[in-house]
User: What shape does this take?
Amino acid sequence: MPDAGERHILSIFSTFSVGGPQVRFCRVVAALGAGYRHSVFAMDGNYGCAERLPASANVAFPPVAMRKGATMANVLGFARTLSAMRPDILLTHNWGTIEWAMANQLAGRRHLHIEDGFGPEERSAQIRRRVLTRRLFLRRATVVVPSRTLHDIATRIWRLPEQRLRYIPNGIDLDAYQREGSPPASGAVVIGTVAALRAEKNIARLIRAFATLPRQDAARLLVAGDGPERAGLEALATELGLTDRVSFLGHTTDVPSVLSRCALFALSSDTEQMPLSVLEAMAAGLPVAATDVGDVRAMLAGENAAFVVPPEEGALARALAGLAADPALRARIGAANRRKAEAEFDERRMFDAYRSLFDGVS
Assistant: This one.
């Protein structure tokens, strides 16, 4: 029997595979502890991130009937589910769960919506149909955004009421990324990236940029993560003659260990907002060569700004080369990134913000 004092949160994801929003959710659940129970529904049936939930957490994965493409039938079915389950909070994530926001117009549960960003189809411009749908069905929800870029979009383009918006930047477990000294200044420079291997992460851009580095520098590239693009990326590395210099590590739950092997971090995405991987690199005291997307430039220390570049292969190659060639510069920028992470992105602030939001304080 559920504890009458527990706050029941029904969380909806388009997928519960491992990704930034899903990992953040697991960390928030662990931090909230007792007093909350959670029901999680993944619309694609993928619950790969469930392994990251603490064993002590009160989490269920109830089945919910739905048919892809059957919008109105789904909306009516989800409304019935909400009326039957009567959660204290409906927590939806991103565009893929908009049918639940529509259903809640009928069910009337307290609704929180977290918008983390967009897929490649909206990297350049917002799709008008989606803009209008968000404007209509999120206007009574409390909408959480982790980036200033998204806050601007939500107010200026979606025209959501300012009083319904909450800016909660992502946070990081700083203690998990403490270094035992710095990577060696001599020998092979190891460049690392951590990403779901999907098209919008554009790891192909990174591999091509890496291929231009002088071979005498013996640089190596570590790619941590898995996804539908992996086979094609491995083929690209082979085509470019990089099989001895590029390592695909696959899915990992030990990102601190991966980053401890690296001298610098690379982000090659076409679209991001506030990527967790960049926070991880900052917490690990690494300099970052990154495409200038979302809040990335603002997240990083000012000393790192010269290495945040347009999303173009040549620019990224120059950023990688500049950092790879200068150990002292890497150490200086990495230390500045760590200081900024400590000052602004401690996960305890994020946990407090979500606790207050769930409890109706903010």
User: Anything to note?
Assistant: The chain has a mean pLDDT of 93.
